[in-house]
Amino acid sequence: MLLQVSDIRKRYVLGGEDIEVLRGVDLTVTSGDFLSIMGTSGSGKSTLLHVLGGLTLPDSGTYLFSDRNMLALTDNELSWIRAHWLGFVFQTFDLLPELDVLGNVSLPFLYNRTDRSDAQRKVNEAIERVGLGHRKKHRPAELSGGEMQRVAIARALAISPKLILADEPTGNLDTRSSLAILELFQELNERGATIVMVTHDSQVAAVSKKIIKMQDGVLLTD
Ligand SMILES: Nc1ncnc2c1ncn2[C@@H]1O[C@H](COP(=O)(O)OP(=O)(O)OP(=O)(O)O)[C@@H](O)[C@H]1O
Ligand SMILES: [Mg+2]
């Protein structure tokens, strides 16, 4: 077992309105899993992914990741876990516009205690792996959408994380670029990466090993 959450709850109070976004989420992910979470807009998928990534603290529930109690860590411990064990791919890519491909993929190593030459090797390997070896000096504005998405994936996998969290990783891409990204995910998974992916596209979800539906803040079990 890589991670286990149980009875995770999260509510937001905004402008007097009380929204319960996560209403008792239970989920177990085993090493080597490739899981898709599907559900309608607003059902809580991104919020759940943020909780799994230690970016959002839930109001209650338990969360064990690699035997750590993720809800009782100090900020430093959480930063360490994010920098060494977790890779994020967001729909908006979140690339820094002033940095080229090499610079963007190197970012996680600012917070990661890998020695410099080792880090450089890993960054270059990750860029090659996503097929962007010929674009290392390009900035985001000089890349296509599919290429930007691949930079975000290279950045996520460069640290060899225990878990890759991907939120609509093909959301803005055409069919061909989407297929290339999904093949890459399958290859990473075959090499041992554990992946949790959010998507509303059933064709995208079909490449994963397991699909779980999210509805009104809970995961439905089959
Ligand atoms: N920081 C916040 N403050 C207030 N409400 C929020 C906040 N973040 C999310 N919400 C609300 O929580 C609900 C779930 O949001 P979430 O982003 O998890 O949905 P989602 O399933 O990822 O949807 P989509 O498929 O559209 O990306 C939404 O109704 C949203 O308005
Ligand atoms: Mg979302």
Write the layout of secondary structure elements.
Layout: E1 3-14, E2 17-29, E3 34-39, H1 45-52, E4 60-65, E5 68-69, H2 75-85, E6 86-89, H3 101-106, H4 116-129, H5 145-157, E7 163-167, H6 175-190, E8 194-198, H7 202-205, E9 210-215, E10 218-220
Parallel strand pairs: 3-8, 3-9, 6-7, 7-8
Antiparallel strand pairs: 1-2, 1-4, 4-5, 9-10
Helix pairs in contact: 4-5
Bound molecules: adenosine-5'-triphosphate and magnesium ion (MG).
Adenosine-5'-triphosphate is lined by residues 12, 14, 19, 21, 39, 41-47, 200.
Keywords:
single chain, 222 residues, alpha/beta, Rossmann fold, 6-stranded mixed β-sheet, 4-stranded antiparallel β-sheet, 32% helix, binds adenosine-5'-triphosphate, binds magnesium ion
Structure description:
It is globular, with a radius of gyration of 17 Å. The chain is α/β, with parallel strands linked by helices and 222 residues long. The model has no long low-confidence stretch (mean pLDDT 93). The chain has a 6-stranded mixed β-sheet, with helices on both faces. Strand 1 and strand 2 (17-29) form a beta hairpin. Helix 4 (116-129) crosses helix 5 (145-157). The chain has one domain: P-loop containing nucleotide triphosphate hydrolases (Rossmann fold), CATH 3.40.50.300. The longest helix has 16 residues, at 175-190. The chain contains 7 helices and 10 strands. Bound molecules: adenosine-5'-triphosphate and magnesium ion. Adenosine-5'-triphosphate (ATP) is lined by residues 12, 14, 19, 21, 39, 41-47, 200.
